[in-house]
What we know:
By secondary structure, the chain is α+β, with helices and mostly antiparallel strands. It has one domain (2-225): 3-Layer(aba) Sandwich (Glutaredoxin), CATH 3.40.30.10. It has 4 helices and 11 strands. It has helices at 2-11, 35-44, 72-84, 108-118; strands at 21-27, 50-56, 94-97, 101-104, 126-131, 134-139, 146-160, 170-186, 191-194, 203-212, 215-225. The strands form 3 sheets. A 4-stranded mixed β-sheet has the order 2-1-3-4, with helices on both faces. The protein has a 4-stranded antiparallel β-sheet with strand order 8-7-10-11, with helices on one face. A hairpin with a 2-residue loop joins strand 5 and strand 6. Residues 1-18 form the signal peptide. It comes from Jannaschia seohaensis.
Amino acid sequence: MRLATAAFAALLPLSAAADPVVVELYTSQGCSSCPPADEMLGELTAHEDVIALSLHVDYWDWIGWEDTFGKAAHSERQRAYASAVGSSVVYTPQFVVGGADQVAGPSGMKLAQLIEAHRGATGDVLRAASTAEGRKVVAMEVEGGGQLVLVTVLPRAEVKIMRGENAGRVMTYHNVVIGWDVLGEWSGEAGSFSLPAPRDGYAQIVLAQRVDGGKLGPILGAVKLD
């Protein structure tokens, strides 16, 4: 596992970008095949041109261990991605890159190739700004617009799993999504949007995603907030 994640890290250059690629990992503490993918997501958090998000699902809770970060909303989001490609099947681990491409399991080479393919694909769409009125996100003009979302993440967490397929393991998770709040629908016109104050110990990310008739589309832009 260590060799696999080291090789994966070597595939991706450490470079900053104004246009980060969003990588979502759908995972579960009750999934025995998830730990290598969880490690890969941890590797991605070192890359400034990637926003890596760990979304824990709840549909494996019945097999012996209730995921401490599992949310039904994450399971529904994953199902929405499956529906977008004409499928009803969901599984863990699964990576979704840029809201468009899906990778089954901890396939480091394929994941690295997709991240590289998505670099620069969206343009510098969102920027963070501090004003006298508080923090804001500034959106550039984009045809069609989409949905603006505030994502709250726990940067790092250790969990001792007591039962289920990973019983006895102490797992480290990175950028665990604990809040997914829609800021509003965005017409695509240039403008700014106010943001709530951050919670101590948590990080915030704003992303814009195409949503057409309730179906999830590509991520148009994203920005990490200081």
